[in-house]
Amino acid sequence: MIYKNGKLRYPILGTRKFVRKDSRSPCIRNCCLDDHDICLGCFRSVDEIMKWTQMSDEEQHDVLNIANQRKQKHKDKYSL
Fold first, then answer.
1. What is the reported pTM?
2. H/E segment holding residue 50
3. Each residue of 15-34: pLDDT tens digit?
4. 66: part of which helix (H) or strand (E)?
5. Count of structural domains within the chain
6. Cα–Cα distance between 48 and 51 in angstroms, integer?
7. 2 lies in a domain?
């Protein structure tokens, strides 16, 4: 374990890269893409999913806000 800028980081084995502990993916392992390549499990785009670990905390926060908006739109459209 290594602390950097007050955040706990764990080294990725075999590399010099570190992963922030607080950058957990919002993935719920229920992946299914719609016609716009949005996952209907976490409501992130494929591009957002692929770039997740390289995003800053602020970027991740923005993506989560957008994903929540997408989720609400989907719920409003398809709920009975």
1. 0.69
2. helix 46-51
3. 555 555 456 889 999 999 99
4. helix 57-78
5. 1
6. 5
7. no
